[in-house]
Specification:
Length: 132
Amino acid sequence: MQTEKELRTKRPVFLDLQILTKSLPIPGIVSILHRVTGVALFVLLPVLLALLGGSLSSGDTFDDYKRWADNFLIKLILWGVLWALMHHLLAGVRFLLLDAHIGTDLQTARKTARMVLIGGAVSAFILGIFLW
């Protein structure tokens, strides 16, 4: 028979995600966003390829897609997809460098994580301005 103390230690632990995210370091946030953007890009890839294939099929279809993409909400969604792509690309390069044992000390890892967060947003903003 188990004692009360043994029963208490085997109980599941409640993890409050709000508390965890407040104390999560920047490299952890970059890692989680890298995974989330990877899944989002994987899910959206067939849709984007279908749009590309449709736009290349004829001039009329391209004009239809162009009118559809002039909607503000659609532009905002496409800007979000562009940010996901840029963040995933920069974070992937960062993780490849970490796998090569480049930038593994704490200060450099934090600095490169900030660079990924800022670089992904800035590059998506700049590319989005050109596409707007």
